[in-house]
From TrEMBL:
Organism from which the protein derives: Oceanobacillus polygoni
Stated name of the protein: Membrane protein
Transmembrane stretches, start-end: 20-40, 60-83, 118-135
InterPro entries associated with the record: DUF1648
Annotated ranges, domain DUF1648: 30-73
Domain of life (superkingdom): Bacteria
Amino acid sequence: MATTPKRPKLIIPKNKSEWVWDGIGFPSYIGSILLLIINWDSLPDQVPAHYNAIGEVTRWGAKWELLILPSIGVFILVLMQLFEKYPEMHNYPQRLNATNAEQFYQNSRKMINQIKNICLILFAYILYASVSIALD
């Protein structure tokens, strides 16, 4: 059984692009939740619950189903924040060593940051679209 070499733990500050992505992803996500809270009493009992590939509503469901996206968003947010905080946990090629670890960590952390924020933006958009369609 092969043992994995100990990876260096580095404290690398976030770069500008990570701050920009967080500056777009977090407010979008929080804004969509606020939109849902503000409009909760105005929502009808049946809201869009599923869309097809061209964006048409294919299933209507109870308005409580709108809470699924924010819940998944919280799960993704917490999990991805942990992955961002500890880049030494990620999977790397064998050529990782003490001299190139910072570059590998930054690259991997940047990818995780973008995936996290793209998911938050998409969930925010879907929630916004569902609330908008339900209120129209």
